[in-house]
Amino acid sequence: MPKIAYFGSDKFSIRCLTHLLPKYADAVTVVARTAKLSGRGLRQYKEPLIVEYASQAGLPVVRADERADFDLLRGQFDICVAVSFGLLIPASFLESLKYPGLNVHPSLLPAFSGPAPMQRALLSHQKYTGVSLQTLDKKRFDRGRILAQERQEIAEAETLDSLCEKLADSGGKLLRNSLDTGLYEPQNYPSFVSQESYSYAAKIKPAEKHIDWNNYTTEHIMRRQNTLGPLFANVQAVSKENQPILKRVYLPNLQPATTRQDRQQNSSAA
């Protein structure tokens, strides 16, 4: 059984990891980034979610942020698995492994390559997306050799959480199967060619939570809320200096038929 360095951080990486347990529990070491200051005033340290899960599951945890951290890990593992880790793993570490590294990416690569594949698939109202198991490229994100993919339909009322769970389960099964069958060994690589075209899933910006009342339909607003969480609108207000300003107001739990277009349509119909 290969010694596995599992690089992860969030809910997606945790759920993928559950599919390796308990069979590979003795072989897995979780590699996480160091806790960062967060919150108002940056006064509290916030651990990656996977650290708490690893502790509960009895898995060892080591840290890796800088090149020196990765250098210390060289020679300790046979293979690494990166799932939503957030850093490009150095080539020097990958070259120290017995087998090429693996990555689970929540899209049908090369479609929605980049840091926000699930969010971009939802916001662009795709009918389907999927998950890919690929090797780790030594220089670039999401440019490894694709070993397997599984397609997932996107429901009309899909949320980021529900899609994350579906894709993580699919990705976890692909990962488990690769370890069970030896698919991770180069001599066993399949002749797989993705049928998707390249697109880039850019990081979500805070401004994308702004509601464009004039152009968004109810469908657009509900999908955006289900993907990004509470949205905001700019309303007219007056500053302390008695000057007109736009004030950001968050509007949680919006319900259907709340857009200007829909209100106008409903009014005309009446």
Protein traits:
270 residues; alpha/beta; Rossmann fold; seven-stranded mixed beta sheet; two-stranded antiparallel sheet; 8 helices; 11 strands; disordered C terminus
Describe this structure in words.
By secondary structure, this protein is of the alpha/beta class. It has 2 domains: 4-188, Formyl transferase, N-terminal domain (Rossmann fold); 206-269, no CATH class. The chain is built from 8 helices and 11 strands. The chain has a 7-stranded mixed β-sheet. Strand 6 (79-83), helix 4 and strand 7 form a beta-alpha-beta unit. Helix 1 (11-18) packs parallel to helix 6 (160-181). The protein is globular and about 65 Å long. 33% of the residues are buried.
How is the secondary structure organized here?
Layout: E1 4-8, H1 11-18, E2 28-32, E3 36-38, E4 44-46, H2 49-57, E5 61-63, H3 67-73, E6 79-83, H4 91-94, E7 102-105, H5 117-123, E8 128-135, E9 146-153, H6 160-181, H7 218-228, E10 231-238, E11 244-251, H8 260-269
Parallel strand pairs: 1-2, 1-6, 2-5, 6-7
Antiparallel strand pairs: 3-4, 7-8, 8-9, 10-11
